[in-house]
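S.,

Sequence below, as promised.
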Amino acid sequence: MESMNNSNVREASLDALLKIHKNQTYSNLLLNDVINQKKLSKVDVPLYTQIVYGTLQQQRYIDFILESFSRKALDKLEPWVLVLLRLSIYQLKFLDRVPDHAVLNEAVTIAKRRGHKGISGMVNGILRSYLRNGEPELKEAGGPVVQLAVKTSHPDWMIERWVNQFGWEIAETTAEANNHPPGTSVRINPLRVTIEEAITELQNEELEVEISPLLPAEALRIKRGSAAATRAFQDGRITIQDESSMMAGKVLAPNSGERILDACAAPGGKTTHLAEQMQNKGEVISIDLHEHKIRLIDQQAERLGLTNITARTGDARTLDSETLGSFDKILVDAPCSGLGVIRRKPDMKWTKLQKDLERLISIQKDILECAWKLLKPGGRLVYSTCTIDKYENEMQVKRFMEDNKDAVADQDMFDRLPEEVKIDMKNNFMLQLMPGKFGTDGFFMASLEKRSGREE
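The prediction came back faster than expected:
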């Protein structure tokens, strides 16, 4: 059903996509700003969100279509014209509920308003040609990797890397999964609510929820409605967190009274999960590089009523102020390429470069080396990332174990994981979740134990 104010929706979509195109601003941070600026009504927000995310997700395939119908090279078009054509093709190709004539008329109206008559004529001509002729044959693209990259709208290097690391089939299913909308999961705060109470409360606020098949004792999946807008969220009875991220906390398994380090902690989802598992007893030291992100951790702790968290700024590569060997357990949720959460940040496909991974791998190595010195003999360190890249994940861990002979596999990690995901474990102390496979983000975790000096 078209809203009366879809002109506003498409103008808002154009503005948001243009800002992302020009400034490489993250889409997830920008969406709400534009909603507020344009005063979009509640009924228009889903269409706006779908157009922005969908156009970003399908950008390369859309450009492939546009190249067939535009006389000008796409990089020679004014940015706003290119973005307007992209979001219009996205709606024509992927959105059944929006009538073609409405998309066409709106695009021409916006083009007239923003440009001269020649531009509106060109926009009209390109879109009508597409509607008349349909999309071009994909076989024009060169070679299987490029064809898959165009079809699933990814950069060539990403597809090639995944084919090399995982084989063709997994590369293809991963790329396809990245173009599906992500789900929302929430973690209940056991200090304030039971899972049954949380279900009742959320249903009373007209949310549709189901118990997580992976973490049924503490997680819910939101099928309809906004968890962030509920009293349960505002009053600290639930936290929005993907189940893959919750699993990292389950694998670390902190106990009441222990001293825990979260070495790269912002915005605080894992920190607060650890504190809840500890029943608000003991101490969680949360470190992040940026002052404004520390405030986010403090706000989360306050919302959830957690008093055993100390958040402070620091560089996880040089935690000199911490006493060596003073932590029972350490979580290193390392800065990474984020290739497991492309569904949530589709613009990452167009801003992330292969060379970025080399820099991150070096940072991860330094953080692991520093954190390891702070762990007690006999203690546990969990290394986690929200990427699927083997060089950032299992190869990083293997190299670390080769360099640190007191780092041994935590063979009990297997027992702390949901049954469903165990089939994806090649060994008992590392797990790679692929995007969408279990309804989660792409996520990696490995658990290591520090051998005490007396052991051989």
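The chain has four domains: 6-136, 144-177, 184-240, 243-450.

Coffee later?
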